[in-house]
Amino acid sequence: MVALGSHKTIAGGVTAALGFLASGVPAGLKKDGKLDLALIYSEEPASAAGAYTTNIVQAAPLELTRSRVAEGKAQAIIINAGNANACTGEKGLPDAREMARRAGELLNITEDYVLVASTGVIGVPLPVEKITSATPAATASLSKENHAAASQAIMTTDLVPKEYAVQLIIKDQIITIGGMAKGSGMIHPNMATMLSFITTDAAIDSETLQRALKQVVDLSFNMITVDGDTSTNDMVLVLANGLAGNEQIKADTEEYGLFCKGLLEVCTALAKMIARDGEGATKLIEVNVTGAPSQRDAAMAARSVTGSNLFKAAVFGRDANWGRILCALGYSGAKFDPTRPDIFIGDVQVARDGGAVEFDEDRAAALLAQDPVQIFVDLKSGDFSATAWGCDLTYDYVRINGSYRT
Amino acid sequence: MVALGSHKTIAGGVTAALGFLASGVPAGLKKDGKLDLALIYSEEPASAAGAYTTNIVQAAPLELTRSRVAEGKAQAIIINAGNANACTGEKGLPDAREMARRAGELLNITEDYVLVASTGVIGVPLPVEKITSATPAATASLSKENHAAASQAIMTTDLVPKEYAVQLIIKDQIITIGGMAKGSGMIHPNMATMLSFITTDAAIDSETLQRALKQVVDLSFNMITVDGDTSTNDMVLVLANGLAGNEQIKADTEEYGLFCKGLLEVCTALAKMIARDGEGATKLIEVNVTGAPSQRDAAMAARSVTGSNLFKAAVFGRDANWGRILCALGYSGAKFDPTRPDIFIGDVQVARDGGAVEFDEDRAAALLAQDPVQIFVDLKSGDFSATAWGCDLTYDYVRINGSYRT
Fold first, then answer.
1. Site (Involved in the stabilization of negative charge on the oxyanion by the formation of the oxyanion hole): which residue positions (chains A, B) (predicted)?
2. Mean pLDDT, chain B, as a whole number?
């Protein structure tokens, strides 16, 4: 088990680590000249790792990127928002490849080192010429400062850009891990649930990096849900270029543990930002489950509560309807004795041993009005725990998704 | 496979069959003196069968009823709305038993022949004395006519009562099957998704009846979803009192097939009424999947589409966003080749071979404005098919569930 450590949080997002540059430019895929094309570039070829959607309908850029990440090295990531290049038939893969080819040509690196991600509407052919036309502007504006522009360019229905970076010391060497993410709808546990790009100057081989990412994603991005929909395009990519000059991090060492903690901090912070920015959400919901008979049971239980439409609507309405929490635990698939669970909203106990207790409704309602809302569940059926994050279900979720394409 | 037959639809709901009486009275569990206590009575002991929620948190009345149905015979069902008697601790089971005891006493039948169901808020102790006080009125008003009152008394957030009955001929004998149901939120496939009570005058033993019910429930009640939440209280009960005078129906005979068709027609009609009356819904959505490699894949695919919040919100907004349909198929768990599916909204083809086709957006939007909305998916990956029903996701779903208890 990897636990969250405390590291120095710094600014800089996806370019906080040594040797990374980024940019964000308008390519005309979004309306009104908004930024919609992002580029991330490493001055040196980097170890690459990825985690991908479990949806069997997978977008063309995901297919391309997965095969390239499997080779272990990458040096750039080009990302467009506004069109997912998913379900676009035979034209999808050539279009994704063309995005990479153009970026590689302008960056003067091999095309195989360029990864591609897309997000936006499904089933509309990618206007790839708009992207290739804007790629020179994206390469020309690569800089340390433009991490912010990059984080804006990958947004779709996101209300806020999402960036986070930390510094940690591994064997007297400063290592930086930073990243950015997008996502606010079609977010659900089961791999990677949105787009996120993480960069680090740590020296670590791609196999070890892949292992660290898998471990961390299960505790962060796979523990958030907005609406139960798992997208065709979601991925988390990590590039590690080694410019920090540390001794190569080997699996199962103390250094590996420290690195994982840093990576987990970045991924958890970004995952929570995504859940908080869930379409139409007014607040982040954090569900902590303890006392589960296994790690898997703990995770299933916590995610089931954050995924319940009924519970999410009750939180929106500040209704301390704990029965819906118990109900969601019950159909989660997690094993536990239903006559045992204690449930708390913040510090107010609302259920004991799976049944009602007297509680201060006004105080519970006040806690449900806060952001974040914290729910604690003790299943009293074992020693494992997990935390999941979600958001409330609001009128605005319906409004946003009733008219996404218009 | 049981297919839907065409039978004579008749009035009378849960008392349409010979020898069944019903009533609905106010017991003071709902506000404003609304009907909230229903009673169903068979003049003769009847074969009983049941299907129950898969939630591991199960309400006390469900526990009691399950054990009594397992004995094979029952003669009455007492049902209250307004309080689910779920998560009510050690008081739950005695309260459920007391409901049955009082009804049995007044009906002058053994208490073990009385089944109990409850629906409403979870985690609040059942005010059982209100129910026992109203039980004399319920028994006194038992009649053929009061099927309508009974169907109203079991409603919670339902907007309309739900009744259906058919007559069919089995070996020159008229057999009647009728029923009522309630449910509009916390509805999701995985048995039994709501309350439904079916009565028939057919002669059939309880084991064969149980088998017929299981088969039929999988194609009807288990194919509807409103919000993905599976309740603690849901059940479908069938009583068959044999008063039609037919020769006992044996499994796997032609007569059994006819009986199953009739039962399926009643269950499907009630299931669709529940989906149509989904909390806040403005329309019924019917998703027909063909070309699946197995029955299970077909059902998973169809249910996944009806369960997608994103798709449900798109239907509400009349947005022909077929990418969300394909996406939901992709994460359904069903096996299919993602480059094959054809998708139609009504008669408008919106996707071919998993990709975009040109289509008339205005006409598609007009079809999405109709009730029901019909979606046809051909996975082109096999020979199996399934139909699932759901409803759109609207502002009112959020409103209703943001303030259920208040």
1. 119-120
2. 91
Q: In chain B, which residues have their Cβ closer than 8 Å to the Cβ of A321?
A: 121-122, 404-405
Residue A81's SS3 state is: strand
Quote the pLDDT of residue A227. 59
Residue A387's nearest CA partner among A271, A250, A229, A242 is A271
At the second CATH level, the architecture of A284-401 is: Roll (3.10)
Nearest CA in chain B to A189: B331
Instruction: Put the strands of the sheet holding A348-352 in their side by side order.
Output: A355-356, A348-352, A342-345, A373-378, A284-292, A384-391
CA-CA distance, B283 to B367, in Å (whole number)? 12
Per the CB < 8 A criterion, the answer to whether A117 and A65 are in contact is yes
Does A156 count as an annotated binding residue? yes
DSSP-assigned letter for residue B381 = S
ipTM over 0.90: no
Q: What integer pLDDT is reported at residue B244 of this predicted model?
A: 96
Q: Who wins on pLDDT, A403 or B176? A: B176
Contact between B55 and A327 using a beta-carbon 8 Å cutoff: yes
Task: Write the class of the CATH domain B8-274.
Answer: alpha beta
Residues 6+ positions from A353 with CB-CB distance below 8 Å: A339, A340, A341, A342, B89
Q: How far apart are CA A327 and CA A331, in angstroms?
A: 7
| pLDDT given at position B306 | 92
- Contact criterion met (CB < 8 Å) for B403 and A307: no
Instruction: Please give the average pLDDT of every successive group of 10 residues along chain A, which has 406 residues.
Output: 61 97 97 95 98 86 96 97 89 97 98 95 90 98 98 91 96 95 62 77 97 94 73 88 96 95 95 87 94 95 90 89 89 91 96 92 94 96 95 83 59
Indicate the pLDDT class of residue B230, thresholds 50, 70 and 90. Answer: low
Confidence (pLDDT) at A277: 86
CB A183 within 8 A of CB A221: no
Domain boundaries, chain A: 8-273, 284-401
Residues pairing with B24 in the sheet: B38
The candidate with the shortest Cα–Cα distance to A248, out of A216, A202, A215, is: A202
CATH 3.60.70.12 correct for A8-273: yes
pLDDT, mean of residues B197-221 = 96
Residues in A 13-52 with any Cβ partner in B closer than 8 A: none
CB atoms B393 and A395 under 8 Å: no
Please spell the DSSP secondary structure of A223-291, one letter per residue: GB-SSS---SS-EEEEEE--TT-PPPBPTTSHHHHHHHHHHHHHHHHHHHHHHHT-TT-SSEEEEEEEE
Q: Which residues contact A311 (CB under 8 A, 6 or more apart)?
A: A305, A321, A324, A325, A328
**Which residues of chain A does B321 touch, with a Cβ-Cβ cutoff of 8 Å?**
121-122, 404-405
In B, which residues are within 8 Å of A89 by CB distance? 339, 353-356
Please count the CA atoms within 13 angstroms of the CA of B354 that sit on its side-chain side: 25
Binding site for substrate: what residues of B are annotated? Answer: 156, 182, 193, 279, 401, 406
Count Cα atoms within 13 angstroms, Cβ side, for A75: 15
* B372 prior amide bond cis, ω within 30: yes
**Do B53 and B234 contact (CB within 8 A), yes or no?**
yes
Do the Cβ atoms of A249 and A256 come closer than 8 Å? Answer: yes
In this complex, do B331 and A404 lie within 8 Å of one another by their Cβ atoms? no
Q: Which of B39, B37, B250 is nearest to B126 (CA)?
A: B37
Q: Which residues of A are known catalytic residues?
A: 193
Q: Is B379 on the interface with A (CB under 8 A)?
A: no
**Sign of the torsion formed by the C-alpha atoms of B233, B275, A319 and A297:** positive
Tokens standing for residue B242? 């044999």
- How many angstroms separate the Cα of B141 from the Cα of each of B23, B134, B278, B340? 6, 11, 30, 58
